[in-house]
Structure formats: structure tokens, C-alpha cells
Design brief:
By secondary structure, this protein is an alpha/beta fold. It is built from ten helices and seven strands. Strands 3-2-4-1-5-6-7 form a seven-stranded parallel sheet, sandwiched between helices.
Length: 280
């Protein structure tokens, strides 16, 4: 999977591959392990920077199109007069999402990853050069739409939120456990569409989440109709307050990083082949 597609090497960490002439022949696996080690070191530096400035950093993860940017737009409209917000956007191409956020009147920096299917700590480090953290209480990092890799890389953030839109099917946590297991909060989005979908059960989606031994709260909402937004805004305000208090005590939070996601990037992925059924 990611070994072969090269998605571990981004414009943020590419320099690490060429910093010094190799002492000995390195295999692809050791190069990639090295990248992950450097990633974790950079993530700690990013988190120290967030904490020094009293910023809570939240990583938003989901499939493409499940409503991350729409949720941010709705959230900013409701909270921007109370809490100072900024956004880092991650997509393969285009500045579209950052433009949507800027239209709501808050700073947004767009990272375009080219081919990489996730953000990493070095990409965030470069994005931070464009934001004034001293003026920010809450930083959202909208990760690249992808249900596997974003859960494997520490960005220096504090909390993971995983979105599941009702059009994707209620068994997604069972099919993509890596991402859902990492969630500190699971949001079931686009609930205004539930009347048109006779086969999505929010209870089943939550049951699938619990089967991953996850205790994350599950909230349902629609950015379109505003239904359920109050609970989400309350969760956020509480988190921002808790984080400020934690920093006063010189404590911080580390997100859950998924080792199974990491192993997809550094080991030979296990592939199973099934014989093709003979036709006729
Ligand atoms: N009906 C309905 N549509 C929504 C809702 N939220 C988002 N959408 C629509 O879903 C589509 C994708 O929404 P985005 O917010 O761009 O999704 P995203 O997760 O940011 O997408 P990527 O950044 O491409 O991964 C858009 O057409 C939105 O208008 C919602 O609550 N209800
Ligand atoms: Zn990947
Ligand atoms: Zn988006």
C-alpha cells in the first residue's frame, strides 16, 4: 500500500531523505522508519509550540466529502466571536477549502500534499510559519480525506475527531477500524439526510464504534440544518477551557496514534489473494 505509493514522502519531510550521505546501504523499510521517527520528533516540537501559546489543536479526519469543511464553516459562524479560531487545510490539490474558511473571516492556510494521502508533522511545521499562534485559541487541522493514513501520524495535535456521514454506511467503523479507534470524538454528520436513507442506523454506527473498545462520545449533527450543533459547540468550548487549565498545570494531551496504520507504512503489507471464480 503506502510502501509502494510513496505517500510517506511529502514536501515537508523530503529533505530528511537527503540530509546526509547514507552511512550504509539503507532499505526502503529503514528509510521509512526513519521518517516516522523524525515525524514524531517534529510533532513534539509542534505540540510544545501550541502549548506555549495556549492553543488547542484538533485533527479532523474522515472520508473525502463527509462534511469536514462544512462543519468548520458552521462552527466558525457560531463561535468566532467567543473563541479565536484558525484552520490548516489539507488536500491533494486546490486552495478551495482554505478560501471557504477565509470567507468566514478567520485565518486559514492550505497545504496541498500533491500525492500524499495524509498530513505529517513537517507539513504542519511549515504551515505554522504562516499563522500567528499567539492570537489563536483553537486550531483545526482538516486532514486529507482518507480513512486510514491520517490516524498514523502525530502532527503535534491534542485531539482526534473522526467524522462519519450518513451517506457512507453505518458499518464504516467496523471496516476502517484504524481511523475510528483513534477518535476522541466521533461525529455522525449530514443527519438532515436520514429521512431519505432507510438503511443507516445511528445506533448501529455507535455499536460498531463500541466494538472497537472505543469510549469516545458519539454526537450526531447536520451542518446544513444546524440540528445537533449545540452539543458539538458545547464539547468544543469545554475542551478549549480544559486545555487552558491543563497548560496552567504544565500538562498536555497526546493523541492516540494507531500503530496498525503506521505498520501499513513501514512493513510489507499483508495481502490476501482469493482465486477468481470460474465463469461458465
Ligand atoms: N445535506 C447535507 N450536505 C452536507 C452537509 N455537510 C456537508 N454537505 C455537503 O457535502 C459535500 C462535501 O462537504 P465538504 O464540507 O466539502 O466535505 P469535506 O469532508 O470537507 O470534503 P474533502 O475536503 O474533499 O474531504 C458538499 O456538497 C456539502 O455541501 C450536511 O450537513 N448536510
Ligand atoms: Zn498513506
Ligand atoms: Zn474539506
Amino acid at each position: 500500500m503506502c510502501n509502494t505509493c510513496g505517500c510517506n514522502v511529502t514536501s515537508g519531510n523530503r529533505h530528511l531523505l537527503f540530509t546526509a550521505p547514507p552511512q550504509k546501504l539503507v532499505t526502503a523499510v529503514s528509510v521509512l522508519s526513519n521518517l516516522l521517527k523524525h515525524n514524531d520528533e517534529q510533532a513534539e516540537l509542534n505540540r510544545a509550540k501550541f502549548d506555549a501559546n495556549g492553543v488547542l489543536a484538533i485533527n479532523l479526519m474522515s472520508s473525502p466529502g463527509s462534511g469536514k469543511t462544512a462543519l468548520l464553516e458552521a462552527t466558525i459562524r457560531q463561535l468566532k466571536d467567543k473563541i479565536s479560531i484558525a484552520v490548516i487545510e489539507g488536500d491533494l490539490e486546490t486552495e478551495n477549502d482554505a478560501e471557504r474558511i477565509r470567507a468566514q473571516g478567520v485565518p486559514a492556510y492550505q497545504i496541498t500534499t500533491g500525492t500524499a494521502c495524509h498530513l505529517d508533522a513537517h507539513l504542519i511545521q511549515h504551515a505554522l510559519e504562516h499563522l500567528d499562534l499567539a492570537k489563536i485559541d483553537l486550531l483545526f487541522i482538516e486532514n486529507v480525506g482518507n480513512l486510514v493514513c491520517p490516524a498514523s501520524f502525530d502532527l503535534g495535535h491534542h485531539r482526534n475527531i473522526t467524522l462519519l456521514s450518513v451517506t457512507e454506511g453505518d458499518d464504516k467503523p467496523a471496516k476502517y477500524p484504524v481511523m475510528f479507534r483513534a477518535a476522541d470524538l466521533m461525529l455522525i454528520t449530514k443527519t438532515d439526510l436520514l429521512p431519505y436513507l432507510d438503511d443507516f442506523s445511528t445506533e448501529k454506527a455507535e455499536r460498531c464504534q463500541r466494538q472497537l473498545a472505543s469510549h469516545s462520545p458519539v454526537l450526531t449533527l447536520s451542518s446544513r440544518s444546524g440540528e445537533g450543533l449545540a452539543g458539538w459547540l458545547q464539547w468544543l468550548e469545554q475542551e478549549v477551557g480544559d486545555h487552558k487549565a491543563r497548560i496552567q498545570r504544565q500538562q498536555t494531551l497526546r493523541p492516540q496514534i494507531q500503530p496498525d496504520g503506521n505498520s501499513l507504512h513501514i512493513q510489507n503489507p499483508e495481502t490476501h489473494f482469493r482465486p477468481i471464480k470460474q465463469v461458465g
